[in-house]
Amino acid sequence: MHRWTSLVCTLFLFAICVTGLPLLFSDEIDGWLTPHVYADVPAGTPPASLDRLVAQARASYPGEIVTSVFIDDDEPQAYVWMAPSWQAMQDEPASRHFLRFDARTGALLERSQSMQAQRWQFMNVMLSVHRDLFAGLPGELFLGVMGLLFVIAIVSGVVLYGPFMKNLKFGTVRADRAPRIRWLDLHNLLGIVTLAWAFVVGATGVMNELATPLFALWQRGDVSHMLAQYRDATPPAQNELTSVQAALDTAKRAVPGMTITGVTFPTRVNGSPWHYLLWAKGDTTLTSRLFSPVLVDARTGQLAHVLQMPWYLRALEVSRPLHFGDYGGMPLKVLWALLDLLTIVVLGSGLYLWFARRHAVAARIEALAAARESEEAAS
């Protein structure tokens, strides 16, 4: 079980570990490649109205629609995402692009290319390989299966470790033995040292690959039942929408003490056709990873619902920082990177041991066959 689950997933685990290294430092790499410069404004300057940012975006691309607004809580910036139409975005999600604004002055800082045009940028390539192998949902599910095999390989390796090491001290590497024995000892040592980390990252990786079907399950269940009362109502067109800033203010009053980081405009694609969908999060280490959706009527600006996320989506949200190691600053990122490198060594040594064992068995069979031929010739 340990041998074959490891062999089947090793190639894909190599790809995940190698691409995971730059992704750990994605914020730092993005800041180095495209440094962000902001206006020097007095402390306490209130943020610009989202209505102003949206109006500027629509004026820049009059034939397109606004799909969402992202409000960065780390840097003073806001992103207005646009697409040719909802149908175009559904058919080709990479048709989206954004305009980046200074969140305090409202100054336009950047116009992006479409996501399709950015697809082959370094960090986007790393993310696509790590997440779905450029294969969308089938790729995500496939890598989820590979992650599950990795978890099984870890558990079966623990079962094997006890009997194998019962006559050896912990950490023993028999340097005076053949290369295969030395690598076997090193493989076992690094495997047991990185055991807890590899298990957590492997299990949370499987959870992350299930994000799309889990959100779809929630939307088709709880969200669909809640929105049933609106089915006879005509969804508003973009020129009929109420103030997005007013919707933001309404959501803030509904969830005091929480931070609103995103607004999805009315749509049947991952949202509600009749509401603004706003995402609120807490301000502690744990709650900053837990989001609460708030629905605001897109015509009247009245609060409609504060949704409760189901347990499986809460588990998914908690798993993400454990997987990416992005909740403890640079020291934790460096630790995650070192453990990632050790895991690459474990994978490589396991592959070497398999090939070396096959070679040793083949050589033994060949020697036995030669000896038998010699005996038969002598007789």
From TrEMBL:
It holds the Pfam family PepSY_TM. Keywords: Membrane, Transmembrane, Transmembrane helix. The chain crosses the membrane at residues 141-165, 186-207, 334-355. The keyword Cytoplasm does not apply. It comes from the Bacteria. This is PepSY domain-containing protein. It comes from Paraburkholderia acidisoli.
